[in-house]
């Protein structure tokens, strides 16, 4: 038998195969994910959020969904309140039952019946406790390893995706070509159109002001042909 | 005008529409910068408040007074370093001094101040580009700068070299 303090050293773990690895990833992922989500959720609890009007976007468009979320959020409190009221209702029954159990135990103790029952059930009880402890040790060891494995798997998958994007020359070239091609042609189109509009606008105003048209736009004097 | 060779206009003064588009893009960029700065200021202000420090004037108020300087810094920095802001880069324009190079910090500062002067009378100083013989706005006259087409992607001056070569060889 081992203790939960040093489970990894003495516990005989299941043999490694795909199934056990999957169990590790799932259990560790759930544990790791829940811990992180709980931490973020606790941070969000400190934020001040207006009950209504402070939220923008599509969430405000569906009051039914909001009501369901509100109901689900209050569900634990509802269950707790229900349990308390139920307990208050059945409390007299519990009290009577408790008195009856105490009486039966007293009778069994005084008559020697309790020792007899304990002697008969002790081997089974010990076996159950031992088996539960063994599984608990395995679970503890697996859970800790699972969390490490889940973290590793997560980081590896992110690294893999980033690595694939950065190392794949074909993919990078394709993205670059497509982006530059589309953007470049669009920018060029805008430039040419606006440059043409420059001439049209100026020509219109020059005609209104009875000034002669000119074929080319002016240039800085230092760049004029006769200056060079 | 610019049918086939995109560089045919390089070195020539840019007109009103191109400059208007470039200015609109710069306004969007500056608005984004100012918004991010404001968000940071409010965040820092909140942290200061959470830490229990009290100030007579909030950081947000101080930031509001800094906004004109941030806008000015944006334009002066880009003009004096490269001659083009992000908007002008998108539209293929460049601000140049009379020597063909980007304006100095002093001329850029004068030009940024000239923006306010041009805008103060119903933006008349900006519209002046349409009727001015040299396509110059009031702030161009104040800072003695030109805004020219420059579709090159590289360093300043390339467009003018090409302009000179094209026009002196004929």
What does this structure look like?
The complex is a heterodimer of chains A (about 230) and B (about 170). Chain A is mainly alpha-helical. In chain A, about 75% of the residues lie in helices and about 0% in strands. Chain A contains 5 helices and no strands. In chain A, helix 2 crosses helix 4. The longest helix of chain A has about 55 residues. The N and C termini of chain A lie far apart (about 95 Å). Chain B has about 170 residues and is mainly alpha-helical. Chain B has one domain. Helices cover about 60% and strands about 5% of the residues of chain B. In chain B, helix 2 crosses helix 4. The radius of gyration of chain B is 19 Å and the shape is elongated. Chain B starts with 15 loop residues before the first helix and ends with a helix. Classes of the chains: A mainly alpha (about 230), B mainly alpha (about 170). Chains A and B meet through helix 5 of A and helix 1, strand 2 and helix 7 of B.
Instruction: Summarize model confidence as the mean pLDDT of chain A.
Output: 72
Low-confidence sequence ranges of chain B? none
The biggest beta sheet of chain A reads: none
Q: Can you tell me the overall shape of chain B?
A: elongated
Beta-strand residue percentage of chain B: under 5%
SSE run of chain A: HHHHH
The largest sheet of chain B, given as strand count, sense and whether it forms a barrel, is:
2 strands, antiparallel
Helix-residue proportion of chain B: 55-70%
Secondary-structure-based class of chain A equals: mainly alpha
Secondary structure layout plus pairing:
The complex is a heterodimer of chains A (228) and B (170).
Chain A: H1 7-10, H2 18-45, H3 63-111, H4 113-167, H5 169-208
Chain B: H1 16-50, H2 59-81, H3 86-91, E1 93-96, H4 105-120, H5 124-131, H6 138-143, E2 146-149, H7 158-168
Antiparallel strand pairs in B: 1-2
Helix pairs in contact in B: 1-2, 2-4
Descriptive tags:
heterodimer, A: 228 residues, mainly alpha, B: 170 residues, 2 strands, elongated
């Amino acid at each position: 038998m081992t203790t939960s303090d040093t489970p990894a050293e003495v516990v005989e773990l299941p043999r490694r195969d795909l199934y056990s690895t999957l169990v590790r990833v799932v259990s560790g992922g759930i544990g790791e994910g829940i811990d992180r989500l709980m931490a973020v959720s606790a941070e969000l609890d400190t934020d001040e959020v207006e009950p209504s009007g402070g939220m923008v976007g599509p969430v405000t468009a569906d009051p039914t969904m909001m009501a369901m979320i509100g109901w689900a959020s209050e569900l634990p409190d509802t269950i707790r309140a229900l349990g308390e009221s139920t307990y208050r209702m059945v409390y007299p029954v519990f009290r009577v039952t408790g008195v009856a159990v105490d009486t039966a135990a007293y009778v069994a103790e005084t008559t020697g019946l309790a020792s007899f029952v304990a002697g008969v059930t002790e081997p089974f009880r010990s076996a159950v406790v031992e088996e539960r402890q063994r599984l608990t040790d395995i679970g503890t060891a697996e859970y800790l390893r699972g969390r490490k494995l889940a973290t590793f798997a997560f980081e590896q998958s992110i690294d893999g995706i980033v690595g694939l994007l950065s190392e794949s020359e074909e993919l990078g070239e394709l993205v670059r070509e497509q982006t530059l091609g589309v953007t470049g042609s669009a920018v060029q189109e805008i430039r040419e159109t606006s440059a043409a509009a420059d001439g049209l606008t100026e020509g219109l105003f020059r005609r209104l002001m009875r000034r002669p048209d000119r074929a080319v736009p002016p240039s800085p004097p230092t760049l004029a042909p006769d200056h060079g | 005008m610019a049918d086939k060779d995109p560089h045919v206009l390089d070195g020539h003064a840019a007109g009103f529409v191109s400059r208007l588009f470039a200015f609109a893009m710069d306004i969007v960029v500056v608005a984004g910068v100012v918004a991010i700065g404001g968000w940071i200021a409010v965040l820092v202000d909140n942290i200061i408040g959470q830490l229990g420090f009290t100030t007579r004037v909030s950081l947000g108020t101080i930031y509001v007074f800094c906004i004109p300087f941030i806008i000015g810094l944006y334009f002066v920095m880009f003009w004096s370093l490269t001659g083009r802001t992000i908007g002008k880069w998108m539209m293929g324009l460049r601000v140049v001094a009379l020597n063909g190079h980007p304006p100095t910090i002093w001329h850029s500062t004068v030009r940024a101040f000239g923006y306010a002067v041009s805008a103060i009378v119903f933006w008349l100083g900006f519209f002046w580009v349409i009727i001015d013989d040299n396509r110059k706005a009031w702030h161009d006259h104040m800072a003695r700068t030109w805004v020219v087409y420059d579709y090159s992607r590289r360093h300043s001056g390339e467009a003018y070299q090409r302009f000179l070569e094209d026009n002196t060889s004929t």
